[in-house]
Amino acid sequence: MADRRTGTRPTLAQAVLFADFEVARATDRLDPAKLQLLVSYLVGAQYPVVYTAFDGDHFAVTPLMRRYCLRHGAVPANPESILGYRDTVEKRISKQGVLRDDLGVLDRCDELWVFTDLGPHAGDLASLAEGVRVELAYFLRRSPGAAVKIVPVGALLAGADPEPLRIDGTSPEFQRLIDPQGEISRFLSGDLVQDGRALPSVAFVAFDVLDSKYMHWLRPYALTFDKVGLVPGLAVELGDVAAAHGDLGCLLVSWANLVRLAQEFWLFPAMDTTRPSGLIPELLLHVWTELRPGGTMRCQAWRDVRVPKALLGAAWPLTSSEQNVMRQGG
Fold first, then answer.
1. What distance, in Å, lies between the first and last C-alpha atoms of the chain?
2. Which residues constitute the domain of residue 308?
3. 121, 91: one domain
4. Label partner for 105 (CA 20 to 30 A): which of 31, 66, 117, 257?
């Protein structure tokens, strides 16, 4: 992701990121003027949010897909990274339910890129995984004529950085997918909406980065409320940005862009209340407020997520010193 701006704001984003990952955090807060400057930068530094469609057999390639998007000036919205395949399958049971979650993410994305080892011709598209064909059809129905990009998975595995193949959404190959009499269109109009419910809404889940070891509890927790829990540290990882171009400040930019997918903002407090709170959740909340004035913000509790440390309190640590810290923070 090439930054369109230069100067203090990208540098400040990186500095905030570094400061939040420090266990022994400084007690001084960011100057309010600098805080507002950074919020304005994050709100304005918008990049296309790209839904990365792929055959489930290429599950292991998802980190390369995310990094490819970042290198090509986009923010990835990878369904596996946002939903967690096991989490959504265990909750939804049916493939229709899993696809509803996928489309809940796709619904607010700017672009659709298909990562595949198949070509762009009619016969090849017909061989795409049925989930990918549903995603393509949904996107083209939502955005008629929009272009779709095809990225060869084999090239990514070979370490190459290919240019994506751009196909106009009005091409005959794609139009067959959205034929009202076609099987995919009938599924979108029938089975997918047969219960009359809207697609699941997306909740952006913010928390202290030093609590990242608990973030795998958050996606299944959100699903219990029929929400897609967008956990920023799982959607775009620190290693993705480091591998893509090394500018770690762009991690914060990516997370701020993903806020645009959400209908709700969930905020978890820092687990360790004895240290100064991190700035990243506060910044992302400010971004949310700017992008969604009057939007729904919910304060959440780690106990409700059933994280053992939050449930057990001072009974969780092994040593008396750690137990005292837990008592002070409790």
1. 41
2. 201-329
3. yes
4. 117
* pTM for the predicted model, two decimal places: 0.88
Query: Residue 123 has which token pair?
Result: 């016969």
- Answer yes or no: is 230 within a domain: yes
pLDDT in tens, 6-23: 444 568 788 888 888 888
Distances (CA, A) of 196 to 162, 193, 262: 42, 5, 21
Phi and psi at residue 144, to the nearest 5°:
-55, 130
Instruction: Look at the chain and report how many structural domains it folds into.
Output: 2
For 269-325, what is each residue's pLDDT tens digit? Answer: 998 888 888 899 999 999 999 999 888 999 999 999 988 888 877 676 667 666 665
Q: Provide the 8-state DSSP code for 145.
A: T
Task: Determine the Cα angle at 187 with ends 185 and 192, to 5°.
Answer: 125
Q: Do 164 and 228 share a domain, yes or no?
A: no
30 falls within a domain:
no
Q: Do residues 81 and 62 lie in contact, with contact meaning Cβ atoms separated by under 8 Å?
A: yes
Distance in angstroms (rounded) separating the CA atoms of residues 106 and 95? 16
The stretches of 190-319 forming alpha helices (DSSP H) are: 218-223, 232-235, 238-244, 249-258, 280-291, 302-305, 308-312
Whether residue 291 sits in one domain with residue 159: no
What is the residue type of 28?
D
Statement to judge: residues 236 and 320 lie in one domain: yes
Whose tokens are 């009499």? That residue is 181
* Contact assessment for residue 260 and residue 200, using Cβ atoms and an 8 Å cutoff: no
Phi, psi of 109 (to 5 degrees): -80, 155
Length in residues, the chain? 330
Is residue 250 situated within a structural domain? yes
Give the 3-state secondary structure of residue 154.
helix
Beta strands in 141-259 (DSSP E): 148-152, 165-167, 201-206, 227-230
Q: State whether 189 and 205 are in the same domain.
A: no
Residue 40 falls within a domain, yes or no? no
